[in-house]
Fold:
Amino acid sequence: MHLEKTEIVEHSGDEIEHLSPPLASYLAHKAEIDAAIQQTLSKGTYILGEEVAAFERDFAQYLGVRHGIGVANGTDALQLALWACGIGPNDEVITVAHTAVATVAAIEMCGARPVVVDIDPDTFTIDPNQIEYVITSKTKAILPVHLYGHPADMEGINAIASKHHLYVVEDCAQSHGAVYQGRRTGAWSDIAAFSFYPTKNLGALGDGGIVVTDNPGLAAQVTSLREYGWKNQRHMSEAPGVNSRLDELQAAILRVKLNYLDEENEQRRKLARVYDEILSSTKLTLPMEKGSVSHVYHQYVIRSPRRDSLQQYLKKLGINTAIHYPVPVHLQPAYRGRLRVEGTLTCTERMCREVLSLPMHPQLSEERIHSISELLRNWEG
Structure:
């Protein structure tokens, strides 16, 4: 079998704007990423080597926590975080249905039962006012999701958790670098999970995740669980575990991209302000920052009762959009009737009918966002 050579294509700035966000991100840092990959390959250690250890340290320091444990992906990160807290069969974890299915899947992977409550319509995150009345003797944790890059109300959540002696496990898959009351998401809980899926604000060029915590006992648990339950010696499992390790190559790539995370988040915020300024005169409901937070706009999500019509209008004009998420988890075939659903989830279900994610990544220019916004302003919605 003969393999054809792949031609390396140079892209102009205008062309990069129309590439997929992961490819645009790679090209923005290509020289440094390629050098990091080559250096890692030359070391000859490819599993849990120097790059993973360095990235774990660097990312934990960036967040302001003491421990980071690299794992294979964000879903594993959530499962291992819950597992480290001792959460398992017959336990309940309170979370939301307006999220990626991974949030609920990770709870069930521990054998626990997800309990879903409604969200705050302004932030798309868990409404603390919905939490306390669903707590039972089986409740062991609250799992807030910092959706689209806006932090959840961690002060309210932590107050409830403290009162009822519950763990708080943050799902930070979409909030790399976001700030709530002066501290980054991931530093507000007992333990937190991040995904480095390629589309994330801090994205690898493949799968990856990390668990972070200030608690040395929880950190030790995750470190053991991610590698078959090994603790004091290899090949001796002291508890059932899994194989979930962050790859050396991905860690090297993430170390490069971490240096640019704050800068690129600020660019996302600038682009969001362009959208805000032009679209403020329309009937669209725009995202907002609620409270003392720094939104990092993993997605720029607008709302319209005529969302589907708007999406088709933009598609005909060559503007790609997405819906995050079209069906809440509790109404998906795999989960319908199986989750404990409290209340009517009126807000959750309405959001899923109305939300639309507009183009948003740091390699887009302000001119491009201005052009998209003008098209939106001309829509007869």
Observations:
- The domain at 26-116+125-258 is CATH 3.40.640.10 (Aspartate Aminotransferase; domain 2).
